[in-house]
Structures are given as structure tokens and as C-alpha cells.
Amino acid sequence: MSSFWHWYITIGVIVYIIAVFWLLQATRKSKTGSEGEDELMDHSYDGIQEYNNPLPRWWLQLFYITLIFSIGYLVLYPGLGSWKGTFGWTQQNQFEKEVAATDAITAPIFKKFGAMSMEELVSSQPQAIDMGKRMFINSCSVCHGSDAGGAPGFPNLTDNDWLWGGAPDTIQATITLGRTGSMPAWASTLDELSIQQLTSYVISLSGRSSNKELAEAGQPKFQMYCSGCHGADAKGAQALGAANLTDKVWLYGGSAAVISKTIREGRSGIMPAHKDLLSADQIHLVGAYVYSLSHTK
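Request: output the structure for the sequence above.
Response:
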């Protein structure tokens, strides 16, 4: 915070407190007329007028107590610009204390489940899976959906189709370190006819109907430009995060228009690392929940 805003806020708060104190002092006594009678207020409601009497003493004292409390608060806690208060309290410190207190209670539970394999958790620890589900909803559902069913560009985690692999250790590594997938754009290398030929060939790989002539012309081009990542059999490579093109599972969509767009413009996806957001034991529980979605007990 700049010195200007520090003094702007500080002076504003102090002036406001002084103004409230002055207002209380100025209005704490009633005004009387020339003959010593209480003065009536000018306004009238259905012929009823009020005397210009002061606030009840007990009520007025509550205002003074509030002012004294506010001054003491501003000395002890932040509130005057960049003044940190004599207690040195901050939201971050308070948050860290609350997290530490919570961790002290939950850490033994997470540690207990963290020592078990994901397969064991799935088969015999429903409480652990429920805990993993709640953490998944908090940390992962924004992209993958609350049901883990995914969305265009975000994998469905309830099937058994995996870009990077679905083994327990691989799932845990994905959550911990994240993933970065990239499909290069081919618009600058291939003409539109070649893109349509590749599109038809890719469609045919999953047993769908496509233009036979275009698909036949697209096969050698697939081997030339695409097999390096997706493999000669087009079944992908999990080590590279390259999709299997022979099934009917599509990350961005499997229509001809979407496939052509993918070939033409490429794709780029990032799965963020969660190692700084969740502990290793918490990641283990989230991984167990994800593993359970495609593995029966």
C-alpha cells in the first residue's frame, strides 16, 4: 500500500470517529424554549409532535462504549492504513493456524489410509473412498464434473480409457505433477484436401462409415504425419498422452468437423499439478476415488 492510501484511510477513520463523538456531544442535551419549556420538534404526524429530548443516558453510553471499543480495536488490529496492529494479526496467519489445527486432527486419518494401496481402499474402505470423493468435488469437479464424467477437452474418468494410463501409481503421478498434452497444428503443412483425407481415415479407424476414397488416400499420410505419436496401429501411446483413435472415445469430440479442426489447428491441454494444494496422503485418497470409478469392488 502506498503512503498516500495509508494516510488517506488513517485520517479518514480518525476524522470519522471524532465526528461521531462531536455529534453525540452536540445532541446529548435537549433544547428548551424561552420560558424554560421543552422545545417541540417542527415536524408533525397526524397532529402528533415530539419533544426535542436527548437520547436516554444508557443508550448514549452504549455509543460511547462503542467508540472506545473501536479505538482499542484499531490499536490492536489492522484498520488504519498499513498499520498492522500491536497483535500483528493477519488473515493469512489466522488461516494458517486454522489449517494447522485441522491438519492435526485429520493427518492421522489420512496417514492411515495413505499406507494402504488404492486397490485395498477400493475393496474394503468405503469411508476412504467417500473422503476422496469429497476432495475430488472440491478440487477436480470444475473441470471433470461432479460426476467425473468430463466435458469436451476434459477426460471422462468413469470409463477405462486413459490418455496417460490408469494404473494406481500413474493416476497418483498425474494428480501430483499434472500433465501437459499437445497436438500440433497441421494447417501450415497440409492442404485442405489432405486434412479431409486424414479426417476420413481417422473416422474409419473406429469402424464408422466414411468416404472410402478419401480414407484410402489418408492412410499413407497418417503413417507419415501422425503415427509418430499415435502409433502405426493408431492405438496411441500413453507415454506421450497420445489418444487411441481406434475406439469411440473422443476428448474433444468425434464428428468430422471436430476432427478436421483438431488436425488443422491442433490441441493443447493442461492438467494442473496438485502437489502444492493437497498432501501426498490426500492425493492418494483422491487417486483411489478416481481409480474406483472404473474398477468394480
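The chain is about 55% helix and 5% strand.
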